[in-house]
Amino acid sequence: MNIAVFASGAGSNFHSILNYFKDHCNVRVVTLVSNNSKCGAVQIAIDNGISFFHYSKYAFSGKCSNIALKLIEYLKHKDVSMIVLAGYMKLLEPEVIRNYSNRIVNVHPALLPAFGGKGMYGDIVQKAVIDSGVKISGVTVHLVNENYDEGQIIFQKHFAVEYSDTIETLSQKVKAIEHKYYPKVIEQIALGNIHKIDDRIFLKNKIE
User: Fold this and answer.
1) What is the spatial distance between Cα 177 and Cα 160, in angstroms, rounded to a whole number?
2) CA–CA dist 4, 58 (Å, integer)
3) Beta strand pairing call for 194-197 and 200-203
4) Region 1-100: CATH code
5) Which residues are catalytic?
6) Residues 203 and 173: beta-carbon distance below 8 Å
């Protein structure tokens, strides 16, 4: 199965995914898609010989009236079967979601449905976690639909929020979990190790 990773920022999750699947027999990362051509994820793609698609209206100004169709055309050309969002800051267009129904996953730095929705990303999420006073937070992997962070939850991993935690320490805890577990969840979905019951997806295997 060929995977496309979408990222907008530094690319730490993209890097962990690349490393995990580097020598994988059945799953390959074949391209990076980003709205930010100068982000760290793009440099990681260049350094690892991964093709890059700049997905922005500015990149296609005057060339394509519907860039979503251009993206879909590119993904089909790369024979992409699954889209993985890894710090991607844009809402995907309905055309893309329809073409990859139940084949787009995202990782969110909190336990959804709490602390999700438009504008809830990165340090903003961790500040909200601290301000709320909750004692448990974590990471969520979910399918992507047309609304921010509202797709079906597939996997969650939690950790304790300590009195001494700061935005920075929570971010470090989140990244450690994302880097360890997100590639494993992606692998299980890509290999078809899932149950489908009434349009809901469950992982067959427990991930440790």
Assistant:
1) 13
2) 21
3) antiparallel
4) 3.40.50.170
5) 108
6) no
